[in-house]
Amino acid sequence: MCGICGIIGGDDDQARLGLVKKMNMRMVHRGPDAEGIHHGGIATLGHRRLSIIDLSEAANQPFTDPHGRYVMVFNGEIYNFMAIRDLLPGFDFRTKSDTETVLAAYIRWGADCLKHFEGMFALAIWDNLKQELFVARDRFGVKPLYYRQDAGTYSFASEIRPLLATLNEPPRIEPKALEDYLRFQSVITPLTLVRGTMQLPAGFYGTWKRGEFEMSTYWDPASPQQYDGGTVKNARKKVRELLFRAVEKRLVSDVPVGAFLSGGIDSSAIVSIMAEVGKRKPSTFTIGFREPAYDESKYAEFVAKRCGADHARVVLGADDFLDALPDALASMDSPSGDGLNTYVVSKAIRQSGITVALSGVGGDELFAGYPIFRQFSRIRSLSWAMGMTGPLRRAVAGLLPVEDQRMLRLQELMSLPDADITRVYPIQRQILHASLIRKLVGRPDAGKNGSLEDLLQAHGERMRALPVYSQVSVAEYLGYTQHVLLKDMDQMSMASSLEAREPFFDHLLVEYVLSLPDGFKKGHQPKTLLVDSLGSLLPREIVNRPKMGFVLPYDHWLRHELKDLCEQRLSALAGRSGFDGAFLSTFLDDFMQGRKGMRWADIWVLVVLADWLERNGIN
C-alpha cells in the first residue's frame, strides 16, 4: 500500500521535480517507510511506500525494468502475483515483490495484463521509448487515482491534495460535482469537487501521449458470467469455495495480517475463514462501547475465542469520537458525510501494531444485506402504479405532504415513468433532495441530469438483463460503494498508514454471485446465501443475534458540543459565491430549533464541505 504521483511534460525540468517532491510530502501518511523519485526526460514520478510484500530496498519504487525503458509507480496489492510469474517464463525477476510482477506483466501483455490481476491497485507506467504514460485502476475502485491535464502536462496522484500543490492559482469548485456531493455525500466519477481535477473511474485504464489522454474500460460489474443453471446447493458450495480463496489470497503478506471484527455476520465470516486457511492464528481487533445498548464486543470476543484468535478490544464512548473529529476532518482528502467510525477504528488498529487488516466491508452489497434491496424489490412489485397516466401520478404525488426528505423522495418516486433501476436507485441513495439543492445554490437548473443517473444509464441495458437483486448490487458498486464506502475506507485507513483488504470485493466471487437468481439470496434471515454457504463455520449465536449498531449522537452534537463549529462553518459557506446565504441561514435555524423533518445528515454534509473547502483554500 502506497501513494503515487507524477508529472509528465512541461519545459522546466527543475520546476517539475520540485512539484513532485511537494506532492510526495503531502502523502507521507500513505507511505511512511520509504520515498522515491524518478526524474528523467519529460517524466517525473514519485512514490511513498508502506512496506507489505518484499520488505527489502530492492522493491522500492519507482521501479525500473532491467533495460531502463519502463518506469512504474504502483499502489495496492496483487494477490495472485506468484501465479502470474508462472505465466512469464524467461523474465529474470530480481525481487520477490508484486510490483516487479506487475511491470513484467505489462511488458508482456500491455493493457491486457489487467485481466490477469486479482487485487486492488492504481498504477502508472512511463515508457521512455514511446514517450507514453499508461495508468490504470482496479475493478471496484478500492484504490484511488486522480489526474489533471494543464497546458500540455499530465499530472496524477493517489489523492487530490498533492495535485492542489501543483496549481499556480487558487483551485475552484466544479459546480456539477458540488451538486453530486450535496445529493450523495460524494462525487461521481470522473469529476471531483476541484475544477479540472478528475478521477479515473473504477475498472478503467488510460494512455497519455503527446498531450492527448484516452480512457477505456476493461471490466464492467454489469456484465457478470452467465448463470450455470445449477441448484442452490451447488451455488452454496461454489460461494464457499470462492470466498475461501478470496480470504486466502488476501493473507499474502510479509508482515502480520489482522482483521476488523465487529461480531456481525460479515466480519465473523472473514475471521472464521482466516482461522481455517491461515498459517497463523488470526489477530483480531474490535471496538467496544461504554454504552451497553450499543456494545457488540461480546459477540466479537465470542468469535475470536472460537477461532483461537489473538484478540484486542478497545473501549470507546461517544466523547472519544467527538475528540477524534478534528483530526478526522483534517484527514479527509475529499469531503464525506461518513467515515468517522472508520477513522477511529483504523487509528486504534494501527496503534496496536497491525499494518494490514482484513475487513468484512462489501458483504451487504453482494449478499443483499441492505434494506435498499428489499425496498427496490417492493417498488418493482408495485410497478402497476406506473401504468397510471403521467398527469394522474403527478397529481397524486402533489397531494403528498412535503414536510421532510422522506416525503420528497416518495413524491419523486411517484412521478417516475417506470420502476427502472437507473431512475429509482439515485432517489433511494440521495441525501439532499434536488429541490433543496436548487435553493442552497440559488440556481433553478441545479440537480437535473445528475452524474449518477448518467452513469447508470450507460450500463442500463446490461443491468436490466440481470436478476433484480443483482441490479441493485451493480447500482451499489457504481454508486454508493465506489464513491462513498470504498473512498472512505481508503482515505480514513491510510490516514493512519493502515492497509485494509476486502475479500468480499474479489471480482471472481462477485461475478459468480451476480449471476445467481434472486431466489438463492432470499430467505428467513439477512444474507441467506452467505450464511447457508458457510454453514457451521458461522456460529448460530452470531447469525441469530439481534441486530445492533452504534449510532453516533450527531443530532445532539450539532445542537450542543458542535454548535459553534456548525455555525462557523455554515456562516462561511453562506458567504461564498454560488450559495444562497439567506436560505442556508434559514436552513440551519430550522435544524437548531428542531423543526419537523430536519435531519442532522442534511446539516452535516454542509459542515464537512465548508470545512474541507476552507482547509484546502478552494474558491
Describe the protein in words:
The structure is a single chain. Helices cover 44% and strands 16% of the residues. With 619 residues, the protein is an alpha+beta fold. Strands 2-3-1-9-8-10 form a six-stranded antiparallel sheet. It starts with a strand and ends with a helix. The model is unreliable at 396-402 (pLDDT under 50).
Task: Describe the structure concisely for a colleague.
Helix content is 44%, strand content 16%.
Keywords for this entry:
619 residues, six-stranded antiparallel β-sheet, 25 helices, alpha+beta, 17 strands
Per-chain topology:
Elements: E1 2-8, H1 13-25, E2 34-40, E3 43-49, E4 63-64, E5 70-78, H2 81-86, H3 98-109, E6 119-127, E7 132-137, E8 146-150, E9 153-157, H4 160-164, H5 175-184, E10 197-199, E11 204-209, E12 212-217, H6 232-249, E13 257-260, H7 265-277, E14 283-289, H8 297-307, E15 310-316, H9 318-330, H10 340-351, E16 356-358, H11 363-366, H12 371-381, H13 390-398, H14 405-414, H15 421-429, H16 434-441, H17 451-464, H18 468-494, E17 499-501, H19 507-515, H20 528-534, H21 540-543, H22 554-559, H23 563-574, H24 581-592, H25 600-615
Parallel strand pairs: 13-14, 13-16, 14-15, 16-17
Antiparallel strand pairs: 1-3, 1-9, 2-3, 4-5, 5-6, 6-7, 7-11, 8-9, 8-10, 11-12
